[in-house]
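Structure in, sequence out. Go:
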């Protein structure tokens, strides 16, 4: 079934709105995919839009600085340096408090507001937030409609859900609550909370949701290769995809999927995407921004965390990971990077991330 078929399901024939162009979205990933990695990954290309890691709302109206700390792109038109829009994600369970915070966030001009109905963290679920809400479609509806009312009509409100908490029996009900609450778009991570991150992802269950709701649905979960993307699109019927760990592991995955979607033939022997030598300057830039923006004690860990993903795709990253594994001194890491990625830009030279940078 094609993406635009759902628009006519169960309704009299009416002129169809043009189907939205297929998009590749960068997944929100708290503790991994922050503004630094969003900046670097969107420079590679192949990503149309990002969602920030979640901003947790409990019982308070958060000060603006909390929103801009997690989504510093709010200072730059809600776009990464490469110009890719970033939506800010809110997580909570109280419709009134979420709406108040969404109103304040809207004043900072995000490219949209996304609502989290999928977080599996115990501390979040214990307070009724994230995936726990999938047992309460009526609260899901109350949250989406309250947030929709609290933000300007032209500001997109989207949502991201899992298939359920313990099982997927209420997946369609939750998706309908999201659509009827007024969301413009729904991303579905094709697993329940109980299934955590264990493969497989049940892409075919997204098709049931897609045929039930009349808003664009984006498929997410276990897309690591171009072939996974093709199979996910076939099984879910969704044209647009959200990529998480796959693109952190292979930053050229979005480009490669787009090339395949457009039927571009790669020259013989050339893999579409990005090679390790092309990635090295970006790794150096990543390190530069990390050093400018993060506490000294968390810097080395951030580089190793990304290398730990990259080593699944690039043998050179495995070597790099082994060489850096025991290093924590930023000066030693500088020296290592200078050896593999060329000399540093020089002490005191600013990062390209000019808007919210300090000197490296
Ligand atoms: C470390 C980590 C952090 C995540 N943080 C968020 C988050 O803040 N908000 C959210 O909606 N999903 C979050 N997710 C879920 C991802 O957005 C995505 O749905 C999931 O990883 C499946 O996609 P993938 O197989 O492409 O990685 C997180 C996942 C991981 C592994």
């Amino acid at each position: 079934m094609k993406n635009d078929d759902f628009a006519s399901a169960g309704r009299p024939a009416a002129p169809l709105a043009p189907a939205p162009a297929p998009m590749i979205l960068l997944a929100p990933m708290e503790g991994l995919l922050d503004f630094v990695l969003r900046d670097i990954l969107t420079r590679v290309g192949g990503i149309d839009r990002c969602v920030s890691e979640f901003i947790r709302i409990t019982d308070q109206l958060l000060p603006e600085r909390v929103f801009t700390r997690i989504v510093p792109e709010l200072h730059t038109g809600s776009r990464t340096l490469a110009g890719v829009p970033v939506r800010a994600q809110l997580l909570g369970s109280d419709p009134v408090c979420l709406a108040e915070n969404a109103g304040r966030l809207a004043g900072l001009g995000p490219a949209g507001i996304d609502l989290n109905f999928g977080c599996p963290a115990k501390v979040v679920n214990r307070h009724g937030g994230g995936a726990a809400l999938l047992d309460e479609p009526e609260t899901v509806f109350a949250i989406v409609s309250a947030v929709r009312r609290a933000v300007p009509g032209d500001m997109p409100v989207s949502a991201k859900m899992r298939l359920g908490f313990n099982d997927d029996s209420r997946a369609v009900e939750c998706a309908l609550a999201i659509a009827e609450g007024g969301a413009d778009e729904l991303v579905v991570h094709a697993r329940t909370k109980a299934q955590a991150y264990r493969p497989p992802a049940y892409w075919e269950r997204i098709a049931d949701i897609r045929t039930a709701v009349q808003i664009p649905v984006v498929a997410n979960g276990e897309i690591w290769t171009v072939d996974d993307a093709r199979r996910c699109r076939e099984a879910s019927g969704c044209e647009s995809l959200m990529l998480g760990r796959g693109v952190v592991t292979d930053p050229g995955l979005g480009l490669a999927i787009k090339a395949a979607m457009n039927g571009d033939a790669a020259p013989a022997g050339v893999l579409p995407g990005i090679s390790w030598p092309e990635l090295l300057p970006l790794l150096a830039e990543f390190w530069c921004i990390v050093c400018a923006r993060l506490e000294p004690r968390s810097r080395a860990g951030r580089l190793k965390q990304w290398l730990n993903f990259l080593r699944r795709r690039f043998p050179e990253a495995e070597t790099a990971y082994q060489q850096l594994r025991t290093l924590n001194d930023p000066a030693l890491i500088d020296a290592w990077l200078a050896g593999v990625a060329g000399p540093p830009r020089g002490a005191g030279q600013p990062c390209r991330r000019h808007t919210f940078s300090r000197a490296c």
